[in-house]
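Final report, Chapter 2: Outcomes

The project's central promise was a pipeline that accepts a single protein chain and returns its three-dimensional structure in a standardized token representation, suitable for archiving and comparison. That pipeline is now operational. To close this chapter, we reproduce one record exactly as it appears in the project archive, with the input sequence first and the structure output second.
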Amino acid sequence: MAARYILSDYVAAAMAEATFDKLEGGTFGGRIPSCPGVVAFATSFRECKEELRSSLEDWILVGLRLKHPLPVIGGASSASDSPRGVCGYLA
């Protein structure tokens, strides 16, 4: 039986919703609409995607620490997939 990682699934679902734009000067911007404030800017698309993922991970950790409910993304939420929530922090 393959192991399931709820937090990894959540991050993957959120990144699948990410939108990216090529900005003036050849830079890139990215955001995840369902995660307010999760944005990134970089000089290449690859760097922007990496920065966006890092911003998302930080956003999730701060939300968990402050006991904020995480939005439902791709059918996964902080409270619905596990009796104890994502990583067991939220109920």
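Archive annotation: The chain has one domain: 6-88.
This record, like all others produced under the grant, will remain available to the consortium after the project formally closes.
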